[in-house]
Amino acid sequence: MNINDLKSKAAAGSVAAQATLGMCYLNGIEVPVDYAEAYRLLSKASECGATRATLSLAEMFYRGYGTEQNTEEAIRLYVIAATKGEFVAQIELARIYSTGVAIPRNLVLAEKWYAAAAAQAGRVTNCEELTEAQAFLASI
Q1: For residue 13, which of 48, 38, 55 has the smallest C-alpha distance?
Q2: In angstroms, how far is the first alpha carbon of the chain from the final one?
Q3: Which residues contact 130 (CB under 8 A, 6 or more apart)?
Q4: Mean pLDDT by 10 residues, the chain (140 residues)
Q5: How far apart are CA 6 and CA 91, in angstroms?
Q6: Same domain, 94 and 62
Q7: Is the pTM of this model over 0.85?
Q8: Does residue 79 lie in a domain region?
C-alpha cells in the first residue's frame, strides 16, 4: 500500500491505517517526521484499542518526541500495551523499572515485566530483548 492510499484510509477512519500512518510520521517513513501528525493519528488509533499505536505514543512521551518528556504518562501507556501482550512494551517497562532512571527503581515490577516478555519465547523470535529478559530473570 502506498502512502497516499494509507492517508485516504486513515482519513476515512481506518484504525489500522491511522496507526500505521502515525508510525510513519513518527519515524519519517515515506513522509517527513511530523510529531504533531504522529500524535494525532496515534492517539486516534490508540483510543480505538490499537496496541502498536499505544506503544508508539508511550515512546513519544518517554523520549519527549514532539512533547514534553512525561515518564508517568509513558508508563501508563506502556502498561496498557504490555497488558495486551505487546512484547516491546513489556521490555520497555522492565527496563524503566530495573534502571530507575526517571523513577524509583522497582525490581519487583522489573521482574514482572521481564517475566511477561520471557513468557513469549515461543511467540517472538530469539532476539536481544528476549535474551535480556531471560538473563535478568536468571540473575535474581
Answers
A1: 48
A2: 46
A3: 117, 118, 120, 121, 124
A4: 93 97 97 98 97 98 95 97 97 96 94 97 89 95
A5: 29
A6: no
A7: yes
A8: no
Cell output for 119:
513468557
Which residues are CB-contacts of 106 (< 8 A; sequence separation ≥ 6)?
A: 97, 100
Task: Assign residue 23 the CATH number of its domain.
Answer: 1.25.40.10
Range of 136's domain? 85-140
Spell out the long-range contacts of 2-7 with Cβ–Cβ below 8 A and sequence spacing 24 or more.
3/30, 3/31
What is the sign of the dihedral through the CA atoms of 99, 80, 26 and 39?
negative
- Is 133:119 a contact under the CB 8 Å cutoff? no
For residue 70, the tally of other CB atoms under 10 A from its CB is: 16
DSSP category for residue 64: T
